[in-house]
Amino acid sequence: MTGTRRTRSRLAPAALALALAAGLSGSLAAQTASIAATASISTTALSIVALSNVRFGTVIPGTPVTINPQTSANAGEFEFHGNRNAQFHATFTLPTQLTTGPGGYTMPITFANNSACRRNQAAQAGCTRYNPATALVQRIRNQAVPNDTYFVWIGGTVSPAAGQHAGVYRGTITISAYYTGL
Of 45, 50, 120, 135, most Cβ neighbours within 10 A? Predict the structure, then answer.
């Protein structure tokens, strides 16, 4: 019996090693997996519509007039449309003077650090004020057309001189924007 035990004890480890090698060969082999890469091209352009001008109305020489972008019906308003939840970057080009007539008379216009207001809905009273001299980086409202929007209002201050020449003074406020890709 002693001879049989020795044979078994020598055969058992060898058989175990062969069995393990045979069983593990499938799990030790290299594994692979694949995924698809996709991209959807958007055909929704970013657009801006000027809804209203900044209207200072009739001003009195020597008396500054300020339009509050959050509360005044005379604030200028822009409406953005674009891809749902797409991020955009917008900047203003602001005049420093309004001009009138063939004489080229001018009147100063200024914009404070809170002369603009922004919101993703057309609810001016709830907008957040910001400095129009800084870039605005926000996201289009995450809603289906026609609610894929963002709104910006702008005010400012005109300061006519005491001897300001009469006339209708005009200037141009421009907002430009592009998608950031984020």
Answer: 120
